Amino acid sequence: GDAAPGARVDLHIVPARSSANGYTRGGIVQYFTEATRSVHRPKLELEINFETGSSELASDVRNDLDVVGQALADERLAEKRFKLVGHTDHRGDEDYNMQLSESRAESARQYLIEKYEIDPDRIEPIGMGESKPMMSGTDANTMRRNRRVELELVR
């Protein structure tokens, strides 16, 4: 799936960034506490990089996940449950992409559980493979945007 071996693959999150370097803990907490009143289930599109064909977290990803972990550990989100939903671009075998997206969501989940002692029952990893692209098209930017992990509020 995804691209040539050795190429970097990135996964994304989507309300506006709270700072130049990404989200802030307070921004994420505010988003998930205030957005719960909206009609649509709130979700953040996480910017997570993986090596092609790998579910191992790249070292530069951990800063984004650290902010998410700090937010999930915040008492204002302590009772909330989330889905970590992995996606891939359209390249590669459908079954492989499904497994890859599941594995990537699980990698992000394990990192949050181990480093921030988040209750495993609060985060459900789900793989969507290539089934729910954010954008249609085959250019590099579109494929990059489609390779993502989303943090979605369950309740």
Write the layout of secondary structure elements.
Layout: E1 8-11, H1 25-34, E2 43-46, E3 48-51, H2 62-73, E4 82-86, H3 94-116, E5 123-127, H4 140-146, E6 149-153
Parallel strand pairs: 4-5
Antiparallel strand pairs: 1-3, 2-6, 4-6
Helix pairs in contact: 1-2, 2-3
Describe this structure in words.
This protein is of the alpha+beta class and 155 residues long. Helix content is 34%, strand content 17%. It has helices spanning 25-34, 62-73, 94-116, 140-146; strands at residues 8-11, 43-46, 48-51, 82-86, 123-127, 149-153. It has a 4-stranded mixed β-sheet with strand order 2-6-4-5. Strands 1-3 form a two-stranded antiparallel sheet. β4, α3 (94-116) and β5 form a beta-alpha-beta unit. α1 (25-34) packs across α2 and α2 packs across α3 (94-116). The chain is globular and about 40 Å long.
Largest sheet: 4 strands, mixed
Rg calculated over all Cα atoms: 15 Å
State the shape.
Answer: globular
Helix and strand run: EHEEHEHEHE
- Rounded to the nearest angstrom, the distance between the terminal CA atoms is 32 Å
